């Protein structure tokens, strides 16, 4: 837990990590890698998302990308400039953003990311690459990361998911959608 934060900020971040955890749980129940997130702009929740990779059969539909799209939709609906909104938006996410998402967050100029556990396999905020703070020309702006909020819950959900992946483990009940026939 970061020690340089005021007590009030600390509990606020614990609270704001609740929704991402619920989103991650929903992902888990739907056979997705359990990652969930929330985007807050000036104390207003603009978006929440979870992994939709298997459901959409689209490897880029990570929770963060889903939430970015929702914020863009909100901006469009409310006649707001996305750049101005993203520059004042905090992302709460259960797992350290991957390299792809970290790059997207830089490009959207999100200044702060509060996350749960590390992402040892794909992490873009220091675990694999440090996209968050690297000096990358023409790739948005670096962002600040605060790790460690509700990390144990995030890890437990990931463990449960990867246990299900084991072919000897009982299959999860994943509802499959009928796609369009070509
Ligand atoms: Zn990602």
UniProtKB/TrEMBL annotation:
Gene Ontology annotations for the cellular component aspect, listed alphabetically: cytoplasm; nucleus
EC code(s) of this entry: 3.5.4.33
Biological process terms in GO annotation: tRNA wobble adenosine to inosine editing
UniProt keyword list: Hydrolase, Metal-binding, tRNA processing, Zinc
Cofactor requirement: Zn(2+)
Gene Ontology MF terms: tRNA-specific adenosine-34 deaminase activity; zinc ion binding
CMP/dCMP-type deaminase domain segment(s): 11-136
Alphabetized Pfam families for the sequence: dCMP_cyt_deam_1
Top-rank lineage group of the source organism: Eukaryota
Gene3D superfamilies cross-referenced by the UniProt entry: Cytidine Deaminase, domain 2
Catalytic activity: adenosine(34) in tRNA + H2O + H(+) = inosine(34) in tRNA + NH4(+)
Known role: Probably participates in deamination of adenosine-34 to inosine in many tRNAs.
Record family assignment: Belongs to the cytidine and deoxycytidylate deaminase family. ADAT2 subfamily.
Protein name from the UniProt record: tRNA-specific adenosine deaminase 2
Species name: Phascolarctos cinereus (Koala)
Organism phylogeny: Eukaryota, Metazoa, Chordata, Craniata, Vertebrata
């Amino acid at each position: 837990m970061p020690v340089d934060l005021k007590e009030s900020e600390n509990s606020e971040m614990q609270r704001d990590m609740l929704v991402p955890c619920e989103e991650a749980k929903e992902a888990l129940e739907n056979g997705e890698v359990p990652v969930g997130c929330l985007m807050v702009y000036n104390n207003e929740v603009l978006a929440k998302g979870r992994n939709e990779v298997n459901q959409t059969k689209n490897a880029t539909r990570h929770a963060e990308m889903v939430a970015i799209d929702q914020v863009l939709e909100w901006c469009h609906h409310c006649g707001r400039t996305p750049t101005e909104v993203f520059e004042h938006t905090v992302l709460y996410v259960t797992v350290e953003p991957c390299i792809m998402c970290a790059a997207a967050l830089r490009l959207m100029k999100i200044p702060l990311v509060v996350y749960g556990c590390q992402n040892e396999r794909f992490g873009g905020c220091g675990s694999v690459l440090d996209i968050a703070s690297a000096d990358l020309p023409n790739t948005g702006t670096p962002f600040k990361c605060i790790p460690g909020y509700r990390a144990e819950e995030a890890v437990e959900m990931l463990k449960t998911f990867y246990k299900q992946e084991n072919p000897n483990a009982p299959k999860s009940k994943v509802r499959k959608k009928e796609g369009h026939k070509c």
